[in-house]
Amino acid sequence: MPIIVNIDVMLAKRKMQSKELAEILGITQANLSILKTGKAKGIRFDTLEAICKALDCQPGDILEFVPEKE
């Protein structure tokens, strides 16, 4: 999949643990893990907004497009 999710990178930069972010967002650690690993089929804008607020970042810091090689 050409969309890369960089939540782990932002967590490390902010010195925050996944558990703490999940609590702030009001989602389970399992659902956060699905987002982090890129296994999610989509993300709600309100969830993305909450992640950006919690990590003090922009959506482009979290989501990255990397074209697949042909």
Automatic annotation (TrEMBL):
Taxonomic source organism: Flavihumibacter solisilvae
Stretches assigned to the HTH cro/C1-type domain: 13-62
UniProt GO MF annotations: DNA binding
Stated name of the protein: Cro/Cl family transcriptional regulator
Lineage: Bacteria, Pseudomonadati, Bacteroidota, Chitinophagia, Chitinophagales
